[in-house]
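Morning F.,

Quick status update on the modeling queue. The single chain you submitted on Monday has been processed. Sequence for confirmation:
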Amino acid sequence: MSAHLRTALSLAAAGVPPLPLRAGKVPFGNCRTCANNACGGRPNMKSPGPCTCPGVCHAWAAATTDPNVINSPLWVAAWRQAAAVAYHPGGAGLTVVDLDSTEATAWARASLPATRIVRTTRGEHWLYQGVMQSANAVRPGVDVKSSMQYARWLGPGTGPMTALPDVVRALVVKEPAAVRPVPRAITVPALAGGGECRHRAPAYLDRGIAMAEQRITQASSAVHATVYRTFLAVLSTHGRCGCLTDTHISRLFTAAQAKGESLRHCTDAWTNARTTLGL
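C-alpha cells below.
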C-alpha cells in the first residue's frame, strides 16, 4: 500500500474526503467519457458536470470518504501515480484561508480570528469550522477554499479550530456583481409557423421557474450537476419561444449562487445547456 493511499484512508476515516493530485498540484485528467466537456462540466475539469463515470476525473467532486472507492483498482492506480494528497474542505465542513506569502500571513494575523494553522511551503493554511463559497485572489496572496474546491493535505495543523467568522465570509463579497447575477438576455428561435406561445400565461411560466428554483435549493449534493440539469430542463421547455426574461434567468442564477455556485459557474452551465439544445 502506498503512503498516499494510507493517508487517504486515514483522512476518510476521520470524515475528510481525499483525492489524488499529480505533480504541480493538478488533479487527475478526466476520463474518455467526459473528454471535451461532454458531461457539461468546465473544460479545465475543476468543476464537474452531471457525470456518473467511476474514474478519478473531476477534482474536488471526486473526493470521497468511501473506503471501497478509495481502495478500488482505479483509485489504487491513481494513488500510485499521485504526487500529493488533497482534500475537499467543504466536504469536511471546513473553510481554508490559503495565505501564499509572508505579507498575506501578516495580514491574517492582524485581521482574522486565531484558529488552527497548517504550515505550507510559502505561507500558511488557516482552517475554520464551517462551509462557504470558495474564491481565489480575494486579497493579494489570499484564496478561500471551501465548497467546490480542493486543498493540499499538509497535516492536521496546530491550535484549536475556530468557527467560521463573518470577516472571512465577507472576503468573497467584493462588489454586488459577485453575488447578484446579471445574466445576458437570450435570443432563441421563434415557434415554427409563428404560432402563439403557450407559455405566455404568467402562471405556467412562473410555476416552472419556481419549481426549478426549488430543485436547486433542495440539492444536498452534486450542486453543479443539479444546476446544469435544471438549466437544461428550463431551456428545453421555455428556451425556443422567447418566454424567458432577464428576471427569470436572474432568479435561477440567484438560487444557484445561494448554494455556492459562482457567477462564472452559472454562466458556464447556462451556456453549456444552450449549446446542448442547439439554442
